[in-house]
Design a protein that fits this description.
Elements lengths: L1 H18 L3 H7 L6 E7 L6 H11 L5 E4 L1 H6 L1 H9 L3 E4 L12 H19 L15 H5 L5 E2 L7 H4 L2 H9 L7 E5 L3 H15 L4 E2 L2 H7 L9 E2 L3
Parallel strand pairs: 1-2, 1-5, 1-6, 2-3, 4-7
Bound molecules: nickel (II) ion (NI).
Nickel (II) ion binds next to loops.
């Protein structure tokens, strides 16, 4: 079993190298014999709670992915740069969090595009992965976006429960290798739950990584315009 995993990891590394995902992806793939999950935070950045979360993540040496709302990122550009500089992956959660499937195709794409332009301006050129607000977007819209799209596989409904113990339980009972965990860095209970989840699961050998690392680890070179819910 162990040998099988090692072989799979080596093969994945070779495939990533060949597919042009880059040397970094290949390196990541070789350390993949553990359970890997990605924490993702939507709807920020938040003026006080995001910095609190960032410091907790730094203390635990964890990198996460933040799908920011363009309108808020514009209000806290220094915080946005701080998040990226700390090694977290920054993604696009649209400019003003409209429900994209209730907009026309053109309006929805403009909302995503506006946030992308802002991220390119503040953080530099790159491919900023997209999480459509409410996870809803049409296939046609998806296909016109020049970035991978991601929803989630674990949703503890932290925004609704607002109870850190219940959020911890909901996540810890459902994660598996490749899980993408949906959280919102807008609630003190979420920050508290997140740090508790990391402490509990790191002790069991679970590795927390960014979405890019999670996909690389699973040998997936994400396609532009395609939507993924786990790795
Ligand atoms: Ni959202």
């Amino acid at each position: 079993m162990r040998l099988k995993r090692i072989l799979a990891a080596l093969l994945t590394g070779a495939m990533l190298f060949l597919s042009g995902c880059g040397a970094h992806a290949a390196e990541v793939a070789q350390t993949c014999a553990a359970i890997h999950v990605a924490l993702t935070f939507d709807d920020g950045p938040h003026e006080t709670l995001t910095p609190e979360l960032l410091s907790g993540l730094a203390q635990r040496d964890v990198h996460a992915t933040f799908f920011v709302i363009g309108d808020l990122a514009e209000q806290y550009p220094d915080l946005l740069r701080e998040m990226a500089a700390a090694g977290h992956q920054i993604g696009n959660h649209s400019y003003d969090h409209a429900q994209l499937n209730k907009l026309s195709c053109w309006e929805a794409l403009r909302d995503i595009q506006e946030c992308d332009t802002l991220l390119q301006n503040y953080l530099g050129e790159g491919i900023y992965w997209v999480r459509p607000p409410y996870g809803s977007i049409s296939k046609g819209e998806c296909a016109s976006i020049a970035a991978p799209l991601v929803t989630w596989s674990v949703d503890p409904e932290d925004w609704k429960i607002l109870d850190s113990k219940k959020v911890v339980k909901a996540v810890e009972n459902t994660i598996c290798d490749g899980s993408i965990i949906l959280m919102h860095d807008q609630y003190p209970s979420t920050v508290e739950a997140t740090l508790q989840i990391i402490d509990d699961l790191q002790a069991q050998g679970v590795v927390f990584c960014t979405l890019e690392e999670l996909f690389a680890c699973h040998g997936i070179c994400p396609e532009l315009g395609r939507i993924y819910r786990h790795a």
